Amino acid sequence: MFPLPLPMQAALDAARAAADMGEVPVGAVVTQGTQIVAVSGNAPRRLCDPTAHAEMLAIREAARILGRDRLEDCDLWVTLEPCAMCAGAIAHARIARVYYGADDAKGGAVEHGPRFFTQPTCHHRPELFSGIGAAASAALLRGFFAARR
Protein backbone atom coordinates (compact mmCIF):
# COMPACT_ATOMS: atom_id res chain seq x y z
CA MET A 1 0.00 0.00 0.00
CA PHE A 2 1.29 3.43 -0.96
CA PRO A 3 1.25 6.37 1.46
CA LEU A 4 -1.36 9.01 0.78
CA PRO A 5 -0.23 12.18 -0.95
CA LEU A 6 0.62 14.97 1.52
CA PRO A 7 -2.39 17.14 0.54
CA MET A 8 -4.80 14.28 1.26
CA GLN A 9 -3.07 13.62 4.58
CA ALA A 10 -3.56 17.32 5.42
CA ALA A 11 -7.23 17.11 4.37
CA LEU A 12 -7.73 14.09 6.64
CA ASP A 13 -6.07 15.98 9.52
CA ALA A 14 -8.46 18.90 8.92
CA ALA A 15 -11.39 16.46 8.86
CA ARG A 16 -10.30 15.00 12.21
CA ALA A 17 -10.00 18.50 13.69
CA ALA A 18 -13.51 19.31 12.43
CA ALA A 19 -14.85 16.15 14.08
CA ASP A 20 -13.16 17.15 17.35
CA MET A 21 -15.22 20.37 17.20
CA GLY A 22 -18.45 18.47 16.56
CA GLU A 23 -18.52 19.11 12.81
CA VAL A 24 -19.03 16.44 10.16
CA PRO A 25 -15.45 15.28 9.44
CA VAL A 26 -14.68 16.65 6.00
CA GLY A 27 -11.40 18.35 5.17
CA ALA A 28 -10.17 20.18 2.09
CA VAL A 29 -6.83 21.46 0.83
CA VAL A 30 -6.01 23.76 -2.08
CA THR A 31 -2.59 23.30 -3.64
CA GLN A 32 -0.66 25.25 -6.22
CA GLY A 33 1.88 22.89 -7.72
CA THR A 34 3.39 21.04 -4.76
CA GLN A 35 2.66 23.88 -2.32
CA ILE A 36 -0.27 23.75 0.10
CA VAL A 37 -2.04 27.12 -0.10
CA ALA A 38 -5.07 26.60 2.16
CA VAL A 39 -6.45 23.94 4.50
CA SER A 40 -9.89 23.83 6.09
CA GLY A 41 -12.34 21.53 7.76
CA ASN A 42 -16.13 21.68 7.83
CA ALA A 43 -17.43 24.50 10.04
CA PRO A 44 -21.14 25.21 9.39
CA ARG A 45 -22.16 24.72 13.02
CA ARG A 46 -19.19 26.57 14.50
CA LEU A 47 -19.59 29.52 12.12
CA CYS A 48 -23.43 29.37 12.00
CA ASP A 49 -23.04 29.33 8.21
CA PRO A 50 -24.60 26.58 6.09
CA THR A 51 -22.12 27.37 3.30
CA ALA A 52 -19.06 26.76 5.51
CA HIS A 53 -18.20 23.42 3.94
CA ALA A 54 -14.51 22.51 3.96
CA GLU A 55 -14.19 23.06 0.19
CA MET A 56 -15.83 26.50 0.32
CA LEU A 57 -13.60 27.66 3.17
CA ALA A 58 -10.42 26.34 1.54
CA ILE A 59 -11.29 27.93 -1.81
CA ARG A 60 -12.08 31.28 -0.14
CA GLU A 61 -8.82 31.20 1.81
CA ALA A 62 -6.75 30.26 -1.25
CA ALA A 63 -8.34 33.08 -3.27
CA ARG A 64 -7.58 35.52 -0.46
CA ILE A 65 -3.98 34.36 -0.09
CA LEU A 66 -3.34 34.38 -3.84
CA GLY A 67 -5.23 37.65 -4.31
CA ARG A 68 -7.48 36.47 -7.12
CA ASP A 69 -10.79 34.73 -7.71
CA ARG A 70 -9.57 32.40 -10.47
CA LEU A 71 -7.56 29.44 -9.21
CA GLU A 72 -6.94 27.77 -12.58
CA ASP A 73 -3.42 26.71 -11.55
CA CYS A 74 -4.66 25.12 -8.32
CA ASP A 75 -5.97 21.70 -7.30
CA LEU A 76 -8.49 20.79 -4.61
CA TRP A 77 -8.06 17.75 -2.36
CA VAL A 78 -11.11 16.82 -0.31
CA THR A 79 -12.00 13.83 1.84
CA LEU A 80 -15.59 13.51 0.57
CA GLU A 81 -17.19 13.85 -2.85
CA PRO A 82 -18.23 17.52 -3.21
CA CYS A 83 -21.90 18.51 -3.02
CA ALA A 84 -23.63 20.64 -5.67
CA MET A 85 -22.83 23.90 -3.86
CA CYS A 86 -19.15 23.06 -3.62
CA ALA A 87 -19.05 21.80 -7.21
CA GLY A 88 -20.44 25.16 -8.29
CA ALA A 89 -17.72 26.97 -6.34
CA ILE A 90 -15.07 24.70 -7.88
CA ALA A 91 -16.33 25.57 -11.35
CA HIS A 92 -16.49 29.31 -10.62
CA ALA A 93 -12.96 29.26 -9.17
CA ARG A 94 -11.75 27.33 -12.23
CA ILE A 95 -9.97 24.72 -10.08
CA ALA A 96 -7.83 22.59 -12.41
CA ARG A 97 -8.13 19.20 -10.70
CA VAL A 98 -10.24 17.72 -7.90
CA TYR A 99 -8.98 14.75 -5.89
CA TYR A 100 -11.44 13.29 -3.43
CA GLY A 101 -11.65 10.35 -1.08
CA ALA A 102 -15.00 8.83 -0.18
CA ASP A 103 -18.00 8.76 -2.51
CA ASP A 104 -21.18 10.39 -1.23
CA ALA A 105 -24.14 8.57 -2.76
CA LYS A 106 -26.62 10.75 -0.86
CA GLY A 107 -25.20 14.28 -1.13
CA GLY A 108 -22.42 14.05 -3.70
CA ALA A 109 -22.73 15.91 -6.98
CA VAL A 110 -19.67 14.76 -8.91
CA GLU A 111 -20.22 11.05 -9.58
CA HIS A 112 -23.63 10.92 -7.88
CA GLY A 113 -26.76 13.03 -7.91
CA PRO A 114 -26.67 15.78 -10.52
CA ARG A 115 -23.15 14.95 -11.79
CA PHE A 116 -22.57 18.67 -11.86
CA PHE A 117 -19.52 18.79 -14.13
CA THR A 118 -21.27 16.82 -16.91
CA GLN A 119 -24.12 19.31 -17.22
CA PRO A 120 -24.18 21.43 -20.39
CA THR A 121 -24.64 24.55 -18.26
CA CYS A 122 -21.39 23.91 -16.36
CA HIS A 123 -18.84 26.39 -17.70
CA HIS A 124 -15.70 24.72 -16.28
CA ARG A 125 -14.91 21.04 -15.85
CA PRO A 126 -11.94 20.14 -13.67
CA GLU A 127 -10.11 16.86 -14.04
CA LEU A 128 -11.52 14.44 -11.45
CA PHE A 129 -9.72 11.77 -9.44
CA SER A 130 -11.76 9.79 -6.91
CA GLY A 131 -10.96 7.19 -4.28
CA ILE A 132 -7.76 8.78 -2.92
CA GLY A 133 -7.84 8.10 0.80
CA ALA A 134 -11.36 6.72 0.45
CA ALA A 135 -11.01 4.10 3.19
CA ALA A 136 -9.65 6.56 5.77
CA SER A 137 -12.21 9.20 4.80
CA ALA A 138 -15.14 6.78 4.98
CA ALA A 139 -13.94 5.39 8.32
CA LEU A 140 -13.84 8.90 9.80
CA LEU A 141 -17.39 9.57 8.66
CA ARG A 142 -18.71 6.19 9.84
CA GLY A 143 -17.10 6.62 13.25
CA PHE A 144 -18.42 10.15 13.63
CA PHE A 145 -22.03 9.20 12.87
CA ALA A 146 -21.90 5.92 14.82
CA ALA A 147 -20.89 7.86 17.94
CA ARG A 148 -23.98 10.07 17.55
CA ARG A 149 -26.53 7.27 17.16
Q: What does this 3D model show about the protein?
A:
It is built from 5 helices and 5 strands, in the order αββααβαββα. α4 (84-93) links the parallel β3 (74-80) and β4 (97-102). The protein has a 5-stranded mixed beta sheet with strand order 2-1-3-4-5. The radius of gyration is 14 Å and the shape is globular. With 149 residues, it is of the alpha/beta class. The mean pLDDT is 97. The chain has helices at 6-20, 44-47, 54-66, 84-93, 134-147; strands at residues 27-32, 35-41, 74-80, 97-102, 127-130. α1 (6-20) runs parallel beside α5 (134-147) and α3 runs parallel beside α4 (84-93).
- The number of E-state strands comes to 5
Quick one: overall form? globular
Measured as a percent range, the helix fraction is 25-40%
Category from helices, strands and their pairing: alpha/beta
Mean pLDDT comes to 97
Write the layout of secondary structure elements.
Blueprint: H1 6-20, E1 27-32, E2 35-41, H2 44-47, H3 54-66, E3 74-80, H4 84-93, E4 97-102, E5 127-130, H5 134-147
Parallel strand pairs: 3-4, 4-5
Antiparallel strand pairs: 1-2, 1-3
Helix pairs in contact: 1-5, 3-4
Short key terms for the protein model shown above:
149 residues, alpha/beta
Summarize the structure.
With 149 residues, the protein is α/β, with parallel strands linked by helices. Helices cover 38% and strands 20% of the residues. The model has no long low-confidence stretch (mean pLDDT 97).
